C-alpha cells in the first residue's frame, strides 16, 4: 500500500472535499526549492508551502539551531517562567519591527495571533468601561480559521456555517487604485459611531483572495482616520512578513504605524508552528493594573516554545544576511521581467508584482469560483508539470522560497505561460 493510500484511511485534510478530491500526493523529501514524492517525481515548490518556507526545505542552518536547542531545553511552560531563546528572539525582533511596537505575545499560528489581537482590542476598552465590541475589516479579507479571525475574514464560503455565532464585523472596500475614496469614506462613517474597537487589515496585499494589491499611501490614510477616532489598527503580516514584499514587513512602506502586528508563517523558516502578536506600550498599559481581572487571560501550552524560538532566531539571522537580501532583489527582478513579457498576452487581464509576490489574472467568460473547474484544471496542469502552485479561481500567483534559482524560476514562468494555452 502506498503512503498516499495509507493517508486516505485516517487523515482529514484542510480545505478539502474528500468525496471529490483526488488522493493526496505523498512527499518524502525536500531540499531547497524542490520536493520529491514517493514515486520519485520532482516538484518546484513555487508557493513556499503556503508561504512559510523562505530559506528552502531542509535548511541545515535552521535544523542545526533546532537540534542544539532540543539537546538543551526543548520546552518549558511560559506561565511563571521564561528562557533565553524567547528573550533573545524578542530582542532581535525589536531591532526590525516598527519603532512603536514594544510588547510581544507568543502563540501557535497565524489564526491565533489574529485572535489575540482582536481580543486585546476589545478587552482594552472593556477594562476602561467603554463598550466597543465591533471590528472593521476589508471585503474579501482572510485572517484565519479560529472564531475571531474567521469573523474578520470576508471569503463567504469559509464562514457561512458560523455567521450567526461570531463577533460583529463591518467591511469596507479595499482601496485598490481608483477606489481609494470609497474606502476612506466608508471607514470615516464607521469610526464616527464610536462602536468599533479595531480595524484589521492585510497590509498592501490580500493573499488568500488572489494577491490583491493596494498602495501604502492609501493604507496610511486609513490608519490616520482610525487614530483620529481612537480605533486600534491591526496589521495582519502573517503572509507579508519577513521579506515577502521586499522589506522586512509590509508596514515598513508606511508612514503611519499600526497599533498591533500579527506574525507567523515564515517566522520560523517553515519549520515549527509559532506566532507572535506585537503591541504598543499604550495597549499593554491598558492591562497593567492592580485588578487581576484586567489581565489578558489568554495562553497556549506551547507559548514561546524554546525550540520554536531557536528556529525563529536562525530564520531571522538568515533573513538579514546580504545574500538573502540580494535574493529578494533577484527574485523581484525576475518577476518584473516575466510581468513585462506576459502582461500583453491576450488571455491575461492584469498582472501585479510586489517583492517576491507575482500574480496574474486570466480572462474568463464569467466569474471564476474559488475552487471551480478552471482552478482545478490549472492546478492539475501545474502538478503534472512538476510545479506546486495553488490558483485562486482565475488568479495564478507565484510566491517562491527566496533561494529559488533563476533556472527554477524560468521553469515556473514557462509552465505558467503554457497553462494559458489550455484555458
Automatic annotation (TrEMBL):
The record marks 15 as: Participates in the substrate recognition with KAPA and in a stacking interaction with the adenine ring of SAM. Homodimer. Its main location: cytoplasm. Transmembrane segments: none annotated. Its cofactor is pyridoxal 5'-phosphate. CDD domains: OAT_like. Substrate binds at residues 50, 265, 299, 390. The modification N6-(pyridoxal phosphate)lysine is found at residue 265. GO terms for molecular function: 2 iron, 2 sulfur cluster binding; adenosylmethionine-8-amino-7-oxononanoate transaminase activity; dethiobiotin synthase activity; pyridoxal phosphate binding. It comes from Flavobacterium muglaense. Pathway: Cofactor biosynthesis; biotin biosynthesis; 7,8-diaminononanoate from 8-amino-7-oxononanoate (SAM route): step 1/1. This is Adenosylmethionine-8-amino-7-oxononanoate aminotransferase. Pyridoxal 5'-phosphate binds at residues 110-111, 236, 300-301. Keywords: Aminotransferase, Biotin biosynthesis, Cytoplasm, Pyridoxal phosphate, S-adenosyl-L-methionine, Transferase. Pfam families: Aminotran_3. Belongs to the class-III pyridoxal-phosphate-dependent aminotransferase family. BioA subfamily.
